[in-house]
Here is the input.
Amino acid sequence: MSILRLNRTNGQAGFSVIELAVVFTIAGIMTASSVVMFAKGKARYQLSQKAQSMSWQIERARSLAVKYNKTVTLGFTSQNSVFGITCTNCSEPKSELPPFVIPAGLRFSTYPTMTIRGNGTITASNGTIVISDGQGRQVPITISNSGRTLVGDVADVETTQDTTH
Here is the structure.
């Protein structure tokens, strides 16, 4: 049995305009939804990579504190736009670790200062930093006292606006 139907009036085979319109409509809907899903996935990936970059900055500062057996302070600038080594008596680690410029649009739940000892342990004013992109996505970075950092999964958070005044 052939997929194409034979038009009995004039002997031509093919699909009707309605059948073609339905197929193209379904294909269009599937394409549009996949573009939206791709855009959301890309935004989640980018936020995760930015959090990972910040985690790497902490891990690298820890490695340098151990390497030079020095206490290193890691924190944010007064405008919270740059994250890096802030101690004044640690020129060697500073020279090996450039500051991390915070990408525009990122928001942090806290801006902690971390003290990393020469044995690799970290004392932080807050053990978890939650980074959000302002679009309802956020990712936590957990800093343990042993000196390890863990980047969590990106989560979509419902943004609710308070309508009561």
Notes: Confidence is low (pLDDT under 50) at residues 160-165.
